[in-house]
């Protein structure tokens, strides 16, 4: 705990001065400082006249309430007020604190009684504490699981606080509206309320509300499936809670950081968080947080196979939840028991458990789709396929219905991750039923939904989209190519090979085995090894696993469309080492394009070109904004090499001081056939739409020098091809169901037919040579996919260092818009 007072107790000129100082510490969220100053003052001034004795008692009780010490707060306020204080604001504050403490202890009747008393006094005296009273009524309603009433109370509190210009109460109301949205599972709305609260709290220096808001933003990130960003925010909130002396918040953020680590498969670190949270919760007798820690440990131990420990913590959580009438936690504990029974091969017992839970009408959507999915798995194991299928589809319906409530595109992207297990289980079920074509349809249904909706390819109504037939061979016939669709899973992975003649299905090794080969081979390429001359084993293994089953269906020099999954989204299939006529890169056998889904390929018409007013928009060789993004010595050479393939009247070129982020939108990018960037790039794994092309600083705003992916999607394109000759132009964040999201995704989303993005750092020396050759092929009438392939082959067959895949394989071709 940070020392506030130093060696000597702080001296105050009056009780008012002491009260104001301690209240300010409390309001700003410095709970440790408020606690220390209050205790020091009371020890040196044990006897206070009325009404100061009650004011300081209320101050201490409120401090206890904020620290989760509800019983202690009630004890402090157990004695009756003197008659002269019975109809004052002191009486209102006493009742509001007691109401919250009673509600948190599960004593609903007493909480309601206190609220009625406070309301009566407030109405009689026309108290200025009306906003605080409505806030308290909202808090009590939350504890009673009456979320509609809670929302109404917090909105009324916010309205009154705004009328009274009470910024503290406004910020508190914003915070609580965020909490309500979280509990209603309106996650993008929760993010917005919490962000407003955090920003306002920062402006007025209220650390406690800022810390709570940051934690709530983190939970919105977690619920939306962005576990990495959630983990960072939870850790930040936990450190802040520890610093200001809020142990109940600290234990909550520890629990939630553990949840994020669990979803990131960091089980050992997650266990450490849960154990630390449980220790703090036990020490301080925080019932809610104790239950949450036991539940978290129960699910963790189930995942890693420690069934005895899982049973123990699950039973502890269930006993505490039932004794305190915490229905949501009780449901989670019962669900854990069902999963344990399922793991122990007690399928009938698990089935009864899941059926009982599914019948509960008050399940939250996130609970319901998990229960329904587990119920489907239990029916499948007990050989009741028709009923199993009903519940698989119902679980997906529940999830997709919830997804439709999310309006912001950036929130939809990570949210799809939550459905991975639902779709994987249903696809595995269909494959076991030997219904592989149906499995492909449902696999594709869950892919690239956000991208498809943005382009108008898929209906935002999932029921309409799910009913559409998928004629995969017809898509392959029109594209005159072969489509390879991958699905990676823990037990076994799958490959569908779609040709104009039909669809074939193959089982592949587990995800972990494939991932290991990908990791090793990527490392070899990035270490600048000549993987061809050394016949690198992982490159050959990946070809054998991923391509060889389909090889006989792929004519020489034909088009291949890859729809990857998981780690395969960051793998350039062109680099795989193929047999036949000596070991060679697969690029020599096929023209390869990455795609996001069959539905997007069905709408992909690269052969039809919309007439555009101009040919080329080229933005590059910017003025370096700072030392992190130094000048690119060969950028001007690339600009010149690309530009010379077009007539001057057909192109708009912006370099150096003109290469501003704003120039992209003001140039009307929709009027160009080709768009090319030559610059540094950044890729944000935390927030992929913050990936950016680094350009020249704006004179009017020196802090602005990036063209963000989020801005790119605002401007519709008709370009045949967009080329991002920048580091990590493809992105670095893979979302389950959405694939690799970043700059390339954003340009596809805007409407580009093809996008050339980079998977790793681009060589400033090699890029001009490759781009010159590619545009030369385009000028000769070649299609973008063929032009890029020919440029890569020319570089690969050269005698210099640029023949290595490090230099040419970073450029990945994406198609499908």
Report on the architecture of this protein:
The chain is an alpha/beta fold and 817 residues long. The chain has a six-stranded mixed beta sheet, with helices on both faces. A five-stranded mixed beta sheet has the order 3-2-1-4-7. A three-stranded antiparallel beta sheet has the order 11-12-13. It has 36 helices and 18 strands.
Give the helices and strands, then pairings.
Layout: H1 15-27, H2 31-44, H3 52-66, H4 70-76, H5 89-104, H6 108-125, H7 130-143, H8 147-164, H9 167-183, H10 187-204, H11 207-223, H12 227-244, H13 247-263, H14 267-284, H15 287-303, H16 307-323, H17 327-343, H18 347-358, H19 365-381, H20 385-403, H21 409-415, H22 420-432, H23 436-445, H24 449-455, H25 462-467, H26 472-479, E1 481-487, E2 493-499, E3 502-508, H27 511-526, H28 537-546, E4 558-563, E5 577-578, E6 584-585, E7 590-594, H29 598-602, E8 614-622, H30 635-643, E9 651-656, H31 661-666, E10 672-678, E11 680-682, E12 692-694, E13 706-708, H32 709-712, E14 721-725, E15 733-735, E16 739-741, H33 743-750, E17 754-758, H34 767-779, H35 784-796, H36 805-808, E18 811-815
Parallel strand pairs: 1-4, 4-7, 8-9, 8-10, 10-14, 14-17
Antiparallel strand pairs: 1-2, 2-3, 5-6, 11-12, 12-13, 15-16, 17-18
């Amino acid at each position: 705990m940070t020392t506030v007072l130093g060696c000597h107790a702080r001296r105050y000129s009056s009780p008012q001065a002491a009260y104001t100082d301690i209240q300010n510490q409390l309001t700003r969220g410095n709970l440790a400082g408020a606690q220390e100053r209050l205790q020091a003052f009371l020890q040196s001034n044990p006897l206070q006249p009325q009404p100061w004795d009650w004011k300081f008692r209320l101050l201490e009780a409120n401090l206890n309430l904020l620290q989760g010490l509800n019983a202690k707060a009630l004890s402090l306020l157990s004695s009756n007020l003197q008659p002269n204080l019975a109809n004052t604001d002191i009486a209102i504050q006493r009742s509001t604190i007691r109401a919250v403490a009673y509600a948190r202890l599960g004593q609903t009747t007493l909480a309601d009684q206190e609220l009625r008393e406070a309301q009566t006094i407030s109405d009689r005296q026309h108290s200025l504490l009306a906003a605080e009273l409505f806030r308290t009524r909202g808090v009590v309603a939350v504890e009673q699981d009456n979320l509609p009433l809670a929302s109404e109370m917090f909105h009324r509190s916010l309205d009154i606080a705004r009328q009274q210009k009470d910024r503290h109460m406004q910020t508190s109301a914003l915070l609580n509206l965020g909490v309500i949205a979280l509990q209603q599972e309106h996650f993008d709305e929760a993010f917005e309320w919490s962000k407003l609260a955090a920003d306002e709290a920062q402006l007025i220096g209220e650390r406690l509300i800022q810390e709570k808001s940051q934690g709530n933003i983190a939970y919105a990130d977690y619920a939306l499936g962005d576990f990495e960003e959630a983990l960072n925010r939870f850790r930040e909130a936990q450190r802040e809670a520890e610093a200001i002396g809020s142990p109940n918040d600290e234990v909550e953020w520890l629990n939630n950081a553990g949840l994020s680590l669990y979803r990131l498969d960091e089980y050992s670190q997650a266990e450490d968080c849960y154990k630390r949270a449980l220790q703090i919760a036990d020490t301080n007798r925080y019932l809610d947080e104790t239950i949450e820690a036991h539940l978290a440990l129960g699910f963790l131990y189930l995942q890693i196979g420690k069934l005895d420990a899982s049973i123990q913590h699950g039973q502890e959580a269930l006993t505490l939840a039932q004794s305190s009438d915490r229905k949501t936690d009780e449901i989670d504990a019962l669900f854990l028991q069902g999963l344990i029974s399922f793991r122990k091969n007690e399928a009938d017992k698990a089935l009864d458990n899941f059926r009982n839970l599914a019948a509960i009408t008050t399940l939250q959507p996130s609970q319901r789709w998990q229960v329904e999915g587990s119920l489907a798995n239990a029916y499948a194991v007990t050989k009741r396929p028709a009923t199993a299928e009903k519940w698989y589809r119902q679980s997906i319906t529940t999830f997709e219905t919830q997804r439709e409530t999310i309006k912001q595109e950036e929130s939809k992207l990570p949210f799809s991750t939550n459905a991975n297990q639902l779709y994987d289980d249903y696809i595995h079920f269909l494959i076991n039923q030997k219904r592989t074509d149906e499995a492909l349809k449902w696999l594709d249904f869950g892919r690239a939904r956000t991208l498809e909706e943005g382009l108008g390819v898929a209906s935002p109504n999932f029921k309409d989209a799910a009913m559409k037939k998928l004629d995969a061979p017809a898509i392959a016939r029109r594209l005159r190519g072969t489509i390879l669709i991958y699905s990676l899973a823990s037990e076994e992975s799958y490959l569908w090979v779609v040709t104009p003649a039909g669809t074939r299905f193959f089982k592949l090794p587990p995800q972990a085995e494939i991932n290991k080969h990908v990791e090793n081979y990527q490392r070899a390429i990035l270490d600048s090894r000549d993987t061809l001359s050394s016949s690198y084993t992982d490159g050959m293994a990946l070809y054998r696993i991923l391509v060889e089953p389909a090889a006989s269906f792929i004519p020489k020099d034909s088009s291949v469309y890859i729809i990857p999954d998981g780690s395969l989204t960051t793998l350039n299939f062109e680099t795989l080492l193929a047999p036949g006529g000596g070991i060679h890169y697969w690029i020599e056998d096929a023209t390869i394009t990455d795609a996001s889904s069959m539905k997007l390929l069905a709408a992909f018409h690269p052969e039809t070109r919309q007439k555009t007013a101009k040919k080329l928009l080229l933005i590059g060789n910017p003025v370096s904004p700072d030392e992190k993004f130094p000048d690119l010595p060969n950028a001007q050479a690339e600009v010149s090499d690309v530009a010379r393939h077009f007539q001057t009247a057909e192109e708009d070129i912006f370099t150096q001081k003109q290469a501003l982020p704003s120039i992209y939108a003001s140039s009307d990018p929709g009027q160009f056939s080709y768009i090319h960037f030559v610059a540094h790039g950044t890729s944000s794994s935390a927030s992929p739409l913050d990936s950016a092309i680094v350009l020249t600083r704006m004179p009017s705003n020196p802090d602005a020098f990036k063209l963000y992916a989020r801005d790119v999607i605002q401007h519709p394109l008709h370009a045949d091809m967009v080329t991002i000759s920048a580091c990590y132009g493809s992105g670095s964040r893979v979302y389950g169901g959405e694939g690799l999201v970043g700059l390339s995704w954003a340009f596809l989303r805007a409407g580009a037919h093809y996008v050339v993005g980079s998977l790793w750092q681009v060589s400033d020396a090699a890029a001009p040579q490759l781009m010159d050759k590619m545009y030369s092929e385009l000028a000769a009438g070649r299609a973008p996919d063929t032009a890029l392939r020919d440029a890569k082959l020319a570089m690969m067959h050269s005698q210099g260092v640029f023949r290595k895949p490090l230099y040419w394989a970073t450029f990945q071709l994406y198609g499908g818009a």
